[in-house]
Amino acid sequence: MKQDLLTFADWTPEAMENLLQLAIEIKQAPASYSNVLAGKSVVALFEKPSLRTRVSFDIGINKLGGHMVYLDVQSGKLAGREDSVDTAANIACWADAIVARVFSHDTLTTFANAANIPVVNALCDKYHPCQGLADYITMFERFGKTKGLTMAYVGDGNNVTHSLLIVGALLGCNQVVITPQGHEADASVVAHAKTLAAQTGASIVESTELNAAKGADVIYTDTWLSMGDETPLATIKEKFMPYQVNEALMESSGARYVMHCQPAHRDLEITGSLIDSDKSLLMQQAENRMHGQNAILTQLLSA
């Protein structure tokens, strides 16, 4: 029976830990996995532009011995030509998996229901599971563990926040989510993450106050303005500038490292000097996107 990866919300702590360890093993011994996708083709269907997601999947699939076909839905004039259910069913006639970066999570569920091949969520409006996995790989490499650590997310409650909550809860990493009022993470996702955290002993705290980050091991932030959001920057800055991740916040919280999924807007949500400092894990996160995704594809396609 085929397995999709639209979110980690239905995973167990054991399965999550095993996937993280597989990703680390693939990173450390890539030659051992150089043929797991031999003879297989993956279609990457993108409704939204990308740097890290596209390049990391393309090169990663090649390193596993597979072949990627990239479909830019907008530039390729595919948008609106046919129903999503037919797009997915047709791709499944030729490909071994679909990697989709889309606007709506509903599109992914349509693909998953229509295609008899695995569908991987490369980003949607609700989740970003590949990013979440890469981030906890990075934490594990730096600290030698995830369980018992604390990540403080500062900024807009969004798809990245949701996946950080879910994956962190499964791996036993305490979560502090600090957002301006009105920009909280989705309440249903937070509630589900808390049920997962109860299994691993992790805690989840929500706040609008920056002092809630005190004691965190890592501070995490993301862009204030999501792709496609046309809210004027001046309006965004007025609400979010007090939540900028900067050297003062790092010092007051005591955090050792800063993380950001990128693209980063220097001197908006995070200072450029912090990005370039020895506290920054941004490029390690970016590298680990490939290794995490390779672990996902290996698990879904090599059985």
Protein model, in words:
The protein has 303 residues and is an alpha/beta fold. It folds into 2 domains: 13-128 and 286-302, Aspartate/ornithine carbamoyltransferase (Rossmann fold, 3-Layer(aba) Sandwich), CATH 3.40.50.1370; 131-281, Aspartate/ornithine carbamoyltransferase (Rossmann fold, 3-Layer(aba) Sandwich). It is 42% helix and 15% strand. The chain has 11 helices and 9 strands. The strands form 2 sheets. It has a 5-stranded parallel sheet with strand order 7-6-5-8-9, with helices on one face. A 4-stranded parallel sheet has the order 2-1-3-4, sandwiched between helices. α1 packs across α11 (282-301). The radius of gyration is 19 Å and the shape is globular. The model has no long low-confidence stretch (mean pLDDT 96). Pfam families: OTCace, OTCace_N. Keywords: Transferase. It is an enzyme of class 2 (transferase). InterPro entries: Asp/Orn_carbamoyltranf_P-bd, Asp/Orn_carbamoylTrfase, Asp/Orn_carbamoylTrfase_sf, Asp_carbamoyltransf_Asp/Orn-bd, Orn/put_carbamltrans.
Structure summary:
The chain has 303 residues and is α/β, with parallel strands linked by helices.
